[in-house]
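Readers of this paper often ask what the protein records in our data store actually look like. Nothing more is needed to write down the fold, since each code stands for a local backbone conformation. Below, we set out a record of this kind in full and without editing:
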Amino acid sequence: MEVKLPDSFLWGASLSAYQCEGGNFDSDWRFWEEEKGLEKAGRACNHYELFREDFHRARKLGLNSLRISFEWSRLVPEENYFCSESINHYSEVIDELLKLGLKPVVTLHHFTNPLWFTKKGGWEVSGNIDYFLSYTRYIVESLKDKVPVWLILNEPLVYIYKGFLEGSWPPGCKSLSRAKKVYNNMIRAYILAFDEIKKIYSEEFQEPQVSLAKHMRYFSGCGCFPAFFNSFIAGVRDKLFNTDGLSYLASKGKMDFIGLNYYCREYDRFSFPLGRECDCRQRGRKNYMGWNIYPQGLYKILKRMKEFGLPVIITENGSAEAKNSFYADFLLEHLRSLGRALLAGVDIRGYFWWSLIDNFEWDKGFSPRFGLFEVVYSDFSRRRRDFAELYSEICKSNKIDLN
């Protein structure tokens, strides 16, 4: 059985500025790499210079949209200094996308902050929200005639969990109280930025679609003792990490659609106060990152999104694999889940593979490979992976085979 998608369906791939551009030396992440002795992003994939070639590769595959991000620290490298050279660069980036018929979906915050912002207390200080709003205002005012879709934040709970609970990302905290403070400030910043973007467009231009990219996992209790409590805590984590924030923003009318990032299943076990991911052996396939691959989880989460009454764009879905053949399996299985969700009445408007090219995967460095195109880091050349041809055929046909 085949599912035909609407002509307006977005077939795309995603990119993040810090992970692929190179040369972002005023970011808190650059100094975190130095401080912790991590592999350094450095020139990354040199996408800053090679963006035109990368966009042409995307268009040749049959994609009709790309999700990109702007690097805050490149645009505002010092407090209250807005870099005209950088805004001109990003304007050229958007122009190239439009010229090629690739609909721009732009993320304003994808995990990284300017170092000066971090030194002023970052997201822990409510007064610093104004800095993010100034950045948002500057970007949106400059590009309001070119960008139809904005994602204000990418995976805010991942940012908070990694940086303020687990401590593996900057600023390296392990404090529930500080995490709560950052969460409240980021949600407030999101709502204010949402209103600001709508206000900027209201006078002259067609109203944009505005949301955030929300990371969701399919949570399951592990089979270890005590199984009942493990299932209970999995439900708690599902509510906390998957739906609570969405429910709040939807009730305020502050999302035009749901941006969904889905990768894997998580097995949980009971511990105080929020439970934890179980490190015991579980059945099922794992990818290179050790993530539990569970395509049915995408279908189940998509069906639950119907309760919000909003369209859904899958803003990230992908995998780093040890064998090339596994990429195609992952892609097909997840697209079949998407197709089944469409038949179940879920309003899905787009699908974006993570990522267009291999990139810098934060504290994991360059070894995980997610790209439709392999990056040869010695000379920054690109090689199309075999499964990219499969994705190309699906995009061009605008159909999903459920068999």
